[in-house]
Amino acid sequence: MSPQKSSSVQVASPAFIFTRTGNPFVDSGLAALCILANKKEPSEITLDDLKAQIDYITRLYSGKGWRDAFHGQLFPNAELVNPASKDGPGQYRAALAQYLEQVTPGPGRGNCISCGQRDGIPVEKTRVPLLGSGKLVNFFPAGSQGERFCPNCILAVQFMPLSIEKVGKPLMLHTMKWKIQLAYARKIVGEARRREAAKQQGLVDTGQKKPAGVNAVYAAIEDILNDERVAVEDISNLAAPLRFYHFSNYNQGPEMDMYDIPSAVFEFLTEVHRSRSKDEWRRVVARGFRKKKKRENEEGLFKTTPNMVYQRLTKGESILYYFLAGEFKVIGDWNLVSLYLRKVRRMDEKQIETIRRVADRYLEFSKETGSIKRITQLHWAKSYRDFRSALLRVQEELTRRKGESLLTFDEYVLDLAPEGGASWQETRDLLLFRIYEKGASWLSGKKSELEQLASNEAELEEQT
Ligand SMILES: [Zn+2]
Fold first, then answer.
1. Is 373 helix (H, G, I), strand (E, B) or coil?
2. Centroid of ligand 1 to alpha carbon of 451 (angstroms)
3. Ligand 1 being an ion, which residues bring their Cβ within 5 A of it?
4. What confidence tens digit (pLDDT) does each residue in 271-301 have?
5. Per the confidence metrics, is the pTM higher than 0.90?
6. How far is the CA of 19 from the centre of ligand 1 (A)?
7. From ligand 1's centre to the CA of 29, what distance in Å?
8. Phi and psi (nearest 5°) for 59?
9. Rounded-to-integer distance, Cα 76 and Cα 74, Å
10. Gap from CA of 103 to ligand 1 centroid (Å)
11. Where along the chain do its domains lie?
12. Which of 91-105, 119-133, 188-202, 448-462 has the lowest mean pLDDT?
């Protein structure tokens, strides 16, 4: 069939009222609506589903806890919370009923900035967060009082409070992988229903403070990975970047922070979650909580302080240091570390293998000489020059004593110190990880020497 012929065939489209749009507020709302209506895709939602669920949310939101959330952080000045209105819930219900009357099926074409399938009505922050006030005419296209959202999309956004969590302020996920979007909404709707049964009202609250936003993001990812429908999916079907919006829609000074979780990080976390290294990974993460006071515990810090491992993973910075537990010990095993290197650091197999081999030879050499001197030299290397000098010494001694080589020039330039040694610290941490992992029993026999060196180092640290 030629392309011209196929385009001329008229296929009757099913009349669906919703599709995924790419707008985070609308898509989040659609995910919650799908869970409430027990549908897999927005396109499966019928007008009857929509009516029934609008009934449900208008009843739910009329509780005081929800009205407070609307007023403070979600939809300021909405009918529900307007002090001027006598029957807020009734007026809100009437407003939604009016939009419901205007709902039209797709597909079509229009100027709604979210779906582009029908024409929009200018709305402000009362209906969709972060739009500002309608009075900010210059902020909107063509001098209109607000941004154009169609009735379908406006209604979808009203379900968004059931797919976000409160971490000091609302935290919302947006991803193009619908299964993930749905899994997060499933968890939150479930939690909201439990709260409702227990006569609790308002947003699902994680109990964490605003600065712990990044911890809440990674807890959300764990919840997603625990979802039974996600758990059976092939990893290749789940790979996608995730974006979390941490926002508020205050009348005065709305806020917005974003956490972008690269696809590579999500893939890594998924593999770890399904592997035997899961508990070891928890220990690595626990090292990212910095205790300032003795009585601070991990649980308390999780609620208040950003975890360094999570923060660095999100920013694309190396977390290899956190696999080294101090006192020349490691957390996790070579499998976990090499998974991290392959998935997140995009290190190729050959490079990982060369570093492993060099570390093994380095340890063997130290055992042969009976001294931990070269290992501690590598451990305390403070500059690229120190790092290079430690390797060179072993290379020289190996050549002199046994006519052997630690590594070739190519291996050094391409695998250990690529880009002129820009990532030497990461390579050093990796060499040490392998040395401490493989040499654990031999090193434990060298405890007194290690303690001596550690106290020397402490003095040195004090002086600098
Ligand atoms: Zn729309």
1. helix
2. 67
3. 112, 114-115, 150, 153
4. 999 999 999 999 999 999 987 666 778 888 9
5. no
6. 9
7. 12
8. -70, -50
9. 6
10. 10
11. 14-161, 164-317, 351-440
12. 448-462
